[in-house]
Amino acid sequence: LRKLAEEQGESIETAARQARYGFFANIAKKRRCKSVFVAHHADDQVETFLWNLFRGAGQSGLAGMSAETEHIVNGVALHMFRPLLGIWRSEIVEYIRVQKLRYREDASNASHDYTRNRIRNALLPEIEALFGGRNVSRSIWRVAEIVRAEDEWLDALTQSESTETLSVPDLRAQPVAQQRRRILKWLRFHGVPEPGFDHIEAVRQLVAHTEPAKVNLPGNWHARRREKKLFLEKPKP
Amino acid sequence: LRKLAEEQGESIETAARQARYGFFANIAKKRRCKSVFVAHHADDQVETFLWNLFRGAGQSGLAGMSAETEHIVNGVALHMFRPLLGIWRSEIVEYIRVQKLRYREDASNASHDYTRNRIRNALLPEIEALFGGRNVSRSIWRVAEIVRAEDEWLDALTQSESTETLSVPDLRAQPVAQQRRRILKWLRFHGVPEPGFDHIEAVRQLVAHTEPAKVNLPGNWHARRREKKLFLEKPKP
């Protein structure tokens, strides 16, 4: 994975997800079953939320996992279901005990990333103590669910941005959050690699102010304002 | 404040804010100046975000402070400005030092709530260490800013809900996040006291399912579905 990530200039997390989905896609093709059920639970959702928050997730990055998603992987449309996102790990363990179910512990659970383990075993209990024993995980889960649903709504509201240029007066008339989402979709559509919050804000400077007229973006791209339009300029080959 | 809060059945935070704004309104009237500049800075924003997250802020509760707001207090329209929300405390301290400015330390800063102090002095440094020295505060600030702007957008999209009833088919056709915001505004408009996430979800059950046809709400109110409409029933006097 480390090698794959380096080769493709991606983070290990992204490379891992792609490898995992690729594996699912192969099985799905072989077995002719395109629905995959995964067992992420409420505690996973809470840890993912905190992880994204502390690492500085950008637009949509905070939204966490959805109960249903579709992915096109190696030409296969994978339908992923996560039916346990609202169930706590302790509830699952208790159910297994009462029903006397046999189960397998994924070996990666134990070796699971150090930072995530510390979030679960040290940070969350500490925050709970700080708030007088309040069920802080439940609070965070609720916020994650609200943010997830709002992200879904806003994403549906923002048309895909497949045009060559963006109109500056149009953008200027829209709420800041809408400008951000449109700019992000536009940068992604044109293949600007991993645009972050600071890049989006830099492009927004072109909208909000008369200076500068050009900003630099990742991968040698830049954005320019000319005659009330935003352009992207491709990197030299 | 404690007495005021008890009398009006409110949290101490709410009572404190009302008392503060009331004080501002009196001065504003006396001095004929309706703009108030307050000095909340980026660290305050980050602490407020975490505080709201851990306590389980509901809809909009995560959005934190805005750079500009307007409040009608005791008949006075107060315009509040928070120009320092993007500036870190350390930058302010440094500026004061370089410019040799005189300043006053607010006595409440030292006695400032225990939990907030612990968030600032214990929790944040610990999280930073956990993420290898990454500037976690900056990450959280960025997320808070994204959430704030999206909340503003969504709030503008949700019309005020001043009607007697809500149409079930209309609600059902809308994204979950929109249903939640509309129901919240509707409950608030009719005076249901402090509706929380669980109450909103209970009302959404009336929309999503055929059973139950009635749910209980705070302050002895309840919501009922009848002939494809949601009603609120007032508490008996």
Total strand count of chain A, please?
7
**% residues in beta strands of chain A:** 5-15%
**Quaternary form:** homodimer
What is the average per-residue confidence, as pLDDT of chain A, rounded to a whole number?
88
| SS field, number of helical segments of chain A | 10
Derived from helix and strand composition plus strand pairing, the structural class of chain A reads alpha+beta
Give the termini separation of chain A: 28 Å
What is Rg of chain A?
Answer: 21 Å
Proportion of helical residues of chain A: 40-55%
- Residue stretches of chain A low in confidence (pLDDT < 50, at least 5 long) are none
Order of H and E elements of chain A: HHEHEEHHHHEHHHEEE
The biggest beta sheet of chain A reads: 4 strands, antiparallel
What form of chain A results from the Cα inertia axes?
globular
Biggest interface and residues each: A-B, 38 and 38 residues
**Lateral strand order in the biggest sheet of chain A:** 4-7-6-5
